[in-house]
Each structure stands twice: as C-alpha cells, then as structure tokens.
Design a protein that fits this description.
single chain, 136 residues, Muramoyl-pentapeptide Carboxypeptidase, domain 2, four-stranded antiparallel beta sheet, 4 strands, globular, DUF2507, NO_sig/Golgi_transp_ligand-bd, YslB like protein
C-alpha cells in the first residue's frame, strides 16, 4: 500500500513540475509570476475559498504543501508553506510560488474585507516558503 501511495505522490509531483515549472514559464515568459498570482486569486474565487480553513484543505488536496498561519498583526499576516512537495520543488530549483500567494491574498481579503497583497520569501535553510499578506 505504501509503495502505491509513493507512486501516486511521485506522479502528482511530476505533473505539477511539468506544468508549473516547465510548461507555463515557457508559455508565459517574463509575465509568469504575475499571471500565476492573478490566476491564484481567480482559483480562490472559483472554488469559493473564503476562510483560512478552506485554504488549508485546498492546499492539501492540490498537494501544494502544508500552509500554516504563523503570525497575525494589525497590517499583515504571515504564513509558512512547508512539506515534502515544497522541499522537492525547492531542491529542483523551482522558486515560483505566485499561484499560492495569489490564493492566500484572495482568501485573506475575503476574510478581513481589506485589500491584500502578498510577498514571497524563500527560506532556504528551513526549506520553507514564507508568504506575507499585507493588508491595506
């Protein structure tokens, strides 16, 4: 059973890598990050992700990694994205997490009612991604 699950995980990772880390950047060129960010916002709207719990569940199903709310301040909320899929992507030199940050921005905006934009920071040592949602 474990071998079958590992094969499924490898298959899903391969497909994600093929599309997100190879094909889309080839098609979108220098606009890749911007388009993926806005696509993430659109995905959150399409799937009616309106709360952090919805985002957690979606990230788990889509195998984007584990998303955790780390710190909440008046003008920002800090998130960490981690897990084996994130480690694998970082180890393969994939540093593009704009799709995820767009989704986070949209969900935070819906939850707070405030305009939100996200910034991405790769934490190489910890092999995690920090996403800072800034609220206006």
């Amino acid at each position: 059973m474990q071998d079958n699950l590992e094969q499924v995980d490898e298959h899903v990772y391969f497909l994600n890598q093929l599309y997100r880390d190879f094909l889309l950047p080839e098609i979108l060129g220098e606009d890749n990050a911007t388009i993926l960010y806005w696509a993430g916002k659109r995905i959150a709207r399409h799937y009616n992700l309106v709360a952090f719990e919805d985002l957690e569940e979606f990230f788990q199903i889509a195998e984007f990694g584990k998303i955790v709310k780390v710190k909440e301040k008046r003008a920002s909320i800090s998130f960490e994205l981690s897990g084996q899929i994130v480690v694998d992507r970082l180890n393969s030199d994939s540093r593009e997490f704009s799709l995820e940050s767009g989704m986070i921005a949209e969900v935070v905006q819906k939850e707070t009612g405030r305009t939100t934009e996200c910034e991405i920071k790769i934490l190489d040592k910890e092999q995690k991604v920090e996403i800072l949602a800034r609220l206006s």
